[in-house]
Write a structure and sequence with these properties.
YefM-like fold; alpha+beta; three-stranded mixed beta sheet; single chain; 96 residues; 14% strand
């Protein structure tokens, strides 16, 4: 069974790299007005050109609720006695 994303992608005609380079203004315009534009290289999908708003939406991180300090302060291990002392490491002898 085909997923909606695969079905939608199958209906979109991909641009060959040479054509996309020669007609970049059109690829750009279509990415802004009709959605992502797939570009192939040697018959394989290589890149997708998409509007910056769509890229931001896809890559936006969820709002973090606090700082790293607050995260560690709320940890169940907060206040645990940890021994962080290490023996000095001076490397290993090397014969030159």
């Amino acid at each position: 069974m085909e997923t909606g994303a695969k079905r939608a992608k199958a209906e979109i005609e991909a641009w060959q790299l040479q054509t996309a380079k020669a007609r970049f203004s059109e690829v750009f315009r279509l990415a802004r007005s009709q959605g992502p534009q797939w570009v192939t290289r040697s018959g394989k999908e290589a890149v997708v050109v998409l509007a910056s708003e769509e890229f931001e939406r896809l890559t936006r991180r969820k709002k973090q609720t606090g700082s790293l300090v607050e995260f560690f302060a709320k940890s169940p291990l907060a206040g645990a006695e940890l021994n962080l002392d290490r023996e000095p490491d001076f490397g290993r002898p090397v014969n030159l």
